[in-house]
Design goal:
Blueprint (H helix, E strand, L loop, with lengths): L5 H15 L6 H24 L3 H13 L5 H4 L2 H17 L7 E5 L5 H10 L4 E6 L2 H13 L7 E4 L12 E6 L3 H5 L2 H11 E12 L5 H9 L4 E8 L7 E7 L1
Parallel strand pairs: 1-2, 1-4, 2-3, 4-5
Antiparallel strand pairs: 5-7, 6-7
Bound molecules: S-adenosylmethionine (SAM).
The site of S-adenosylmethionine has 20 residues, from strand 2 and helix 8.
Pfam families: Ubie_methyltran
GO molecular function: methyltransferase activity
Keywords: Methyltransferase, Transferase
Amino acid sequence: MIEDDTFYIWGEECIVSKISSEKGIKLEEQFLFVFNRIEQTKHNLMMGALSMNKEDEKLLQYYLELKGPNAGEWNSSPQCLHTQLVTRDYVKKTFDIFDEIQVCNVGIGTGDWDDYLGYWLKGRGGLTSIDIDESICEIFEYRQQREQHPNPSKVLCRSIFDSDLPQEAFDIVTLIGSAINETGDFKKCLDSCFSLIKHGGYLMFMASLKYTPVEMLEEYISNTKYHIVQKTVYEVFLEYPFFISKIRK
Ligand SMILES: C[S@@+](CC[C@H](N)C(=O)[O-])C[C@H]1O[C@@H](n2cnc3c(N)ncnc32)[C@H](O)[C@@H]1O
């Protein structure tokens, strides 16, 4: 393969100079002109593809995986879309936004929820997103920058159990989906989430009823000074029943 496109430009210049010399060009030279153009275009496309940087390659991989054999079926299912719709609608209708509000989400995953929170807070407040997984943090931060998110998250690549997380810094903390199960310690995870919240602030907790019965949350809260302000169970899809609650610190 030719490393730069000087060769093609030179070929084109030769033919163009022949045409402009008004001597006319032969049929085979006309073919050569068209062939040269096609080769040049192919070359440019290849160079473009080859020059994709490592971050963009990872981003392409991320987009492909969302529709790939492992995640595509769930991501396009009514159960998944219903959960996303209900959760987004819940935060919008249940919590008030005020100027300089600080929100934190624990567990980024695909980052769709964090994207939504950023849009919701746009022009009023900031979002911090915490995740233990370095590659998840990196791709999320890069994707938001590449997609030009208007209110990108401040990403903290940390475990929720780390002791150097900002204490009593947030008005709202959200903990959504399987994040609590993935941490491996229900009580310790909630303790840490509450430690991030200012006095009078809220935790928005959403979890699958299959792995987290509501009673588990109620028992935890009964041993604290916190207060469950609202709790709604969603059982539209019996394969994925879940609940969302708003808890005041
Ligand atoms: C399946 S995702 C769910 C993300 C998102 N809340 C949602 O429902 O779309 C769970 C995330 O929690 C993160 N996670 C697991 N253990 C964690 C910990 N100890 N501290 C912070 N994040 C953790 C994982 O890396 C993963 O990105």
